[in-house]
Amino acid sequence: MVILVLQAVLVVGIFAAVAKENALGENKGNRETNGGKLKCCSNCNFSFSGLYTCDDIVKKCDPVCKSCAVVKTHPVKMFQCTDTFLGMCGPSCKKY
């Protein structure tokens, strides 16, 4: 019984990751994966597919980021990298 529950959770997780990946691709109109590595990421969103996005909102995007979106304009302009990266997230930005 426990194995069946774990399998169900795994399948649901995979479908959720694929759905999110598809939604990200549709939003930016580009399904490319950024092969670079961010200097740091405190709010990493990792999927079972091996892809991750960094949901940090920053004053300036990392130079590796190919698609940097404005997410807040007032009182200070803030940005978020909307790229999908392959591999693992960088270290937490608390050090930087």
TrEMBL record:
SUPFAM superfamilies noted in UniProt: Bowman-Birk inhibitor, BBI
Signal sequence region: 1-19
Organism superkingdom: Eukaryota
Pfam families reported for this sequence: Bowman-Birk_leg
Keywords assigned: Disulfide bond, Protease inhibitor, Serine protease inhibitor, Signal
Segments forming domain Bowman-Birk serine protease inhibitors family: 54-68
GO MF entries: serine-type endopeptidase inhibitor activity
GO cellular component: extracellular region
Family named by the database record: Belongs to the Bowman-Birk serine protease inhibitor family.
Name assigned to this protein: Bowman-Birk serine protease inhibitors family domain-containing protein
Organism whose genome encodes this protein: Oryza meyeriana var. granulata
